[in-house]
Amino acid sequence: MADAQDYEKLETSNAQTIAQFAEDERGFVGRLQHRLHLTPSLVPLIVLVLAIIVFGILLGSKFFSPFALTLILQQVAIVGIVGAAQSLVILTAGIDLSVGAIMVLSSVVMGQFTFRYGLPVEVAVACGLLCGSLCGFINGWLVAVMKLPPFIVTLGMWQIILATNFLYSANETIRSQDIATEAPLLQFFGTTLTIGADEAGRGGANFTYGVIFLVALVLALTYVLRETAWGRHVYAVGDDPEAAELSGVRVKRTLISVYMLSGLICAFAGWALIGRIGSVSPTSGQLANIESITAVVIGGISLFGGRGSVLGMLFGALIVGVFTLGLRLLGADAQWTYLLIGLLIIAAVAVDQWIRRVSN
Amino acid sequence: MADAQDYEKLETSNAQTIAQFAEDERGFVGRLQHRLHLTPSLVPLIVLVLAIIVFGILLGSKFFSPFALTLILQQVAIVGIVGAAQSLVILTAGIDLSVGAIMVLSSVVMGQFTFRYGLPVEVAVACGLLCGSLCGFINGWLVAVMKLPPFIVTLGMWQIILATNFLYSANETIRSQDIATEAPLLQFFGTTLTIGADEAGRGGANFTYGVIFLVALVLALTYVLRETAWGRHVYAVGDDPEAAELSGVRVKRTLISVYMLSGLICAFAGWALIGRIGSVSPTSGQLANIESITAVVIGGISLFGGRGSVLGMLFGALIVGVFTLGLRLLGADAQWTYLLIGLLIIAAVAVDQWIRRVSN
Amino acid sequence: ASHSVSTCLITKTDTNPFFVKMREGAAAKAEELGVELKTFAGKIDGDHETQVAAIETCIADGAKGILITASDSSSIVSSVQQARDAGLLVIALDTPLTPIDAADATFATDNFLAGELIGKWAAASLGADAASAKIGLLNLGVSQPTVGVLRNQGFLQGFGIELGNPNKWGDETDPRIVGNDVTAGTEEGGRKAMENLLAKDSEINMVYTINEPSAAGAYEALKSIGRENDVLIVSVDGGCPGVQNVADGVIGATSQQYPLLMASKGIEAIAAWAKDGTKPTFSEGKNFFDTGVALVTDKPAEGIESISVKEGMDKCWG
Amino acid sequence: MEPILKGRNLVKRYGKVTALDSCDFDLMPGEILAVIGDNGAGKSTLIKTISGAVIPDAGSIYIEGKEVKFTSPIQARAHGIETVYQTLAMSPALSIADNMFMGREIKKEGFMGTIFRQLDRKKMETLAREKLTELGLMTIQNINQAVETLSGGQRQGVAVARAAAFGSKVIILDEPTAALGVKESRKVLELIQDVKARGIPIILISHNMPHVFEVADRIHIHRLGKRLCVIDPKDYTMSDAVAFMTGAKEPPSEAIAA
Amino acid sequence: MEPILKGRNLVKRYGKVTALDSCDFDLMPGEILAVIGDNGAGKSTLIKTISGAVIPDAGSIYIEGKEVKFTSPIQARAHGIETVYQTLAMSPALSIADNMFMGREIKKEGFMGTIFRQLDRKKMETLAREKLTELGLMTIQNINQAVETLSGGQRQGVAVARAAAFGSKVIILDEPTAALGVKESRKVLELIQDVKARGIPIILISHNMPHVFEVADRIHIHRLGKRLCVIDPKDYTMSDAVAFMTGAKEPPSEAIAA
Ligand SMILES: Nc1ncnc2c1ncn2[C@@H]1O[C@H](COP(=O)(O)OP(=O)(O)OP(=O)(O)O)[C@@H](O)[C@H]1O
Ligand SMILES: Nc1ncnc2c1ncn2[C@@H]1O[C@H](COP(=O)(O)OP(=O)(O)OP(=O)(O)O)[C@@H](O)[C@H]1O
Ligand SMILES: [Mg+2]
Ligand SMILES: [Mg+2]
């Protein structure tokens, strides 16, 4: 019965002449396309740079000044931090509708623990961060262990956390002045570094600690996602959880850790929020969900999981920030700005898709 | 070279003794499980019936009366109609965040065309329906032809349509009294059929035409999705668009038709909305998105497309309606109600998942 | 105690402290009079359908009366009619219905007057500078809810700016107006809107805000660039943190409203109606019961009646 | 004789990879043409350009001498070209019957069909069962079973049955027996002969040399994105074919000209 | 001799279908055991219960005589059981190297590895390339290519290379050569022999009878969810095996007892 396989045997004696297609030589455009394809976050970056250039030309120094540009950074800081949390979850093919609620509840916990119970502010902050992680853990447990769809889990948790927030805080605001005198640590992320202001202290580049935290967070997450085993597992789980499980990833543990980390980041966002608005207000953050998801999607992260980078999300958030401020400065009124941002969301993604298509 | 295949040849002469596994005999539970597995919409139906029974026991005739039960139907009519549109889109693995905006814009068009331009009300209604379909077409075109992600397309369109709505309507409400005297057709879906009221016209079962339309729509869509080629194509596209394309489905055409139909249904929802609230109000419908998605997901339709039924969505909407009314009648305050509804959303889906798991 | 009389309170939202206090006022009064109270609210400002559903629920529940702050003052009318037809007493709180007689009674503040008071005060405080003021207007939302429009237009009228369409903000042509932006009535929105306007013109020196949280947010934006002392902020509401902010110099002046009063009066009226069928009466010369509005500031301007911050603190809510 | 299907200078690049590199291709009427080649040689890409699933970057395709430009598989199907893709192209959540009739559903007769456009499920199910029985795929218990619950081999059987049932001009099979059992593979080979007997030409991609040499009239050897040569299985041994395919031997010059 | 891996009375139902019906199973140390059977006979289900990917409804599994209960494939891997699934189980968007080292990544040495937990990409890439070269999968140009851009056969090659590189006690291969070319299949068979020479037993599921008869020490014939019999390839012909498998012939009683 062996003779039929002789035709196969013959082959193996053949020397290992390695078959190799000729590399296709291309010009600059080709190499650029290839680069874009390999680094998807380049695409939103290009859109961002183009947007800044266009608004810079249209508006001149009013827009293209250190003051206005760093203002955008400040305005997107909260959305960016929450967007980082959202990115992690979306990379696992989930979605987190409760990010805004977790953020607000955490900030309320920090505030109330300090002012209502008189705890040292450091302890209160730690409790707030713990609270965020706990909310994240519940999300993660329901998604990973109970195998419920993330959308519905976080939709439910959104309502639960928000209602808890209102019930617990009794809708009471803690005023900025009180915080500044009694617990300035809560406003830590609001501290501003100003570079190059005029004598009166106006203009110049303003970096709040919140902005610096955002940038550091995005860089750290980029490193973790690219360079550690945990990061690869996050991508694998988002890509195909069944295949990941079969090839040795602890899918449940990875999912729970992602949701917990997301909750923790949201709690940091809550802290940064106190820095930004000065006060602790239980009604903030209602739009954080939709804004963070917008940033993530414009940033090129696939809602089906496994593809995209946190850096892209940051550019996505900045694109929205640039358009919002740019359009307002151009004199568009609030409703028109709203409409144009809608158009530009679609246009930004269309450009992105177009570039990707060309490079394929 | 043929001899190696002799072992194969031998086989084919063998008579067609058909290999068949023994059918596994099971008891009642087994058959029920199997039934649940085959008809996924049974699961939300069971949750619904249980919820009605529990609230009926807790609240007695206040809840378990024709009046209260039909009231729930009226309260979910709009969400249900929008949910039907949402279901279609979600079955294709998309999502439509613009449903609420399309609904409101269509109702504003119907109202303004009648009152601002003095068009005959039939023409104005037709224009409203056309407007909805057109919005749907734009969504569909961007998704199918431009290949943009549905989430981002409808997010952008949501903002665009809503801003258009505010700009066009100048935020003006058309009053119920004016509509009733000048263009009663706009309130058509508000017409109520009362069965079994007392002499004073109170109590009894109240069915508005809107409710009847909802039921008819759901039945019609169920038929179309199950029994026509188009319906099978919708499922195939949602399941795996590439495979559908390769096996001969006109994916683009199917997608565009789905979004257009969804837009048209939203326009009908806009018409029904006028019937429900009496007036034409440009600020209505802000929550239609999230509520319709909630209904769809509780109804067991997969957000990843291709699985679930419109009937399930209807039960999903009713579950939310029953809980909302039941909890309010039990005297829970609004925040507690939200909190409990959040819990119940998660619980309903957990039960659903549990039943599915057992039946596997 | 078993409550024979049941009432409903339906507010626009139950997260805004204004409505929270209204609910507390109602609850306290209801407790005192032995009336059962159920509260309802829209999920967001402008959430009209939930209010309609709430009215239906109240009817199904057999309530004697409804207190409502309508999200959409004219759209709610048919539902209100339905409730009245079912024998319920309906009282509009804070926001009058259109037409105003669609409700059995209205207990409200005059929001236009509230705006006008701070407008006049601001013009007087700026004195000669008013003619060259640079004004930023921080409104509620793009859907232009009535309350927001009334306060905004009242402020402009009081300040001496010619109005365009009085039912709409944003169509004024006065060059002193730098721009409008929306805040959603929150600190976050207030800060962002203020930043946007500052980027447009950093010389803004007069800011109108829809409520005190957005004023606090605007102040943070100014503080971050060191201009908190050369900009005058005015606001409306009179919540305790807001009045405290007037004391601290964050806000120049605010128009104080009295939600607790509205709510407790409303509960009293329904209790009376349930007892013997008496309907509430109106304030003299008005077609509604005015629960009043007072300008709170420690820098009174000539010819404009105001109360001191201390007095404001005594009457404040939330 | 004019080829029924002809490809000239087909080029397809994926990023850096050139999957098709000026590839030619000929299918004669009524023949079984086998396409063999190493993994990644570009065989699947070649047949995808022919079936409209991939649009080539350059080159032209002719059906019975007339140039055609397919932009979707539906157009190729309208020309009677039916394909079983290596990835099978089925909707996992739908039933076997639904999948077999996807895109060419049968409507009920009478007004239920014309007005209400109702599908004739019974007829489709009967036909589907018939086709599967022909292939001997009888371990499938339920024609309404979702495709995702089938074993890998069962899925492949369904895909082959679909192509055989509907192909009218050309049938393309990309590794149709890869996951099939001995018995089932046999059935597919028989089916290929049946189809050929009906006068319909077949393109068969396979790594199974005995199968290829058993049924093929001509063998197209693909290497590095190109047609290396075309040989007659009667003139060469399997060892020769494998040697050409892997580059161990130079192909004869007359085969290159063929 | 004690079997290294033993299954007794394994049962697995999917809804109405009984995929495993009181199935027994034995793998002896150092042997190559082939599992053959019709499509849908339950072969994949059997090996999934052994590799922890599916939890059986009933029955027990023993490793070296000790009962084990796997609830996840990770546990089986921890016991040195490495599996190539029919569906391959790879993350399409990740690179070849990422996929090969999924779940057992190599960290950098020094504090970058211990504190910052940085992966040693270079080492992983070098190792991955080595393994692929051993299999002769050299048409893969770039070890950082996403798996989704590979041809079907290339993917299979990567999966086999992964199992061969890491299996220490048992290697299970579910149709490892189904999509492979002649040359590549050959390499896999050689690899199987190599692994056996290292003393590691192998379970091979295949529909390719010549391959099975070439490498197997014993052949487990699976039919209708059960082990029908176990035969020695030296005592029977391929025709016999196929006849048993399809029910055309009764298996000899001594084989059933085996
Ligand atoms: N969608 C794609 N994106 C990028 N590269 C691709 C894509 N499809 C195929 N390729 C590449 O093109 C080359 C040819 O692939 P093709 O699938 O045509 O090979 P094949 O001859 O069918 O191989 P096999 O016998 O393994 O199926 C391979 O190197 C593969 O990596
Ligand atoms: N997840 C599942 N859900 C339902 N039924 C399944 C599932 N997996 C397998 N089956 C059924 O179990 C039976 C055995 O399948 P299995 O995949 O084990 O067969 P196999 O012997 O590996 O076949 P092949 O040679 O085609 O791979 C089949 O009838 C199949 O339809
Ligand atoms: Mg191929
Ligand atoms: Mg198998």
TrEMBL record, chains A, B:
Subcellular localization, as worded in the UniProt entry: Cell membrane
Transmembrane parts of this sequence: 41-61, 67-90, 97-117, 123-144, 207-225, 255-274, 286-304, 311-330, 336-355
Originating organism: Ahrensia kielensis
Keyword Cell membrane: yes
Alphabetic keyword roster: Cell membrane, Membrane, Transmembrane, Transmembrane helix
Superkingdom in the source lineage: Bacteria
InterPro entries cross-referenced by the UniProt entry: ABC_transp_permease
Name of the protein in question: ABC transporter permease
TrEMBL record, chains D, E:
Record CDD domains: ABC_Carb_Monos_I (cd03216)
Metal-binding as UniProt keyword: no
A GO molecular function held by the record: ATP binding
Alphabetical keyword list: ATP-binding, Nucleotide-binding
Positions of the ABC transporter domain: 5-249
Pfam families per the UniProt record, alphabetical: ABC_tran (PF00005)
InterPro entries assigned: AAA+_ATPase (IPR003593), ABC_carbohydrate_import_ATPase (IPR050107), ABC_transporter-like_ATP-bd (IPR003439), P-loop_NTPase (IPR027417)
Protein name, as recorded: ATP-binding cassette domain-containing protein
Taxonomic lineage: Bacteria, Pseudomonadati, Pseudomonadota, Alphaproteobacteria, Hyphomicrobiales
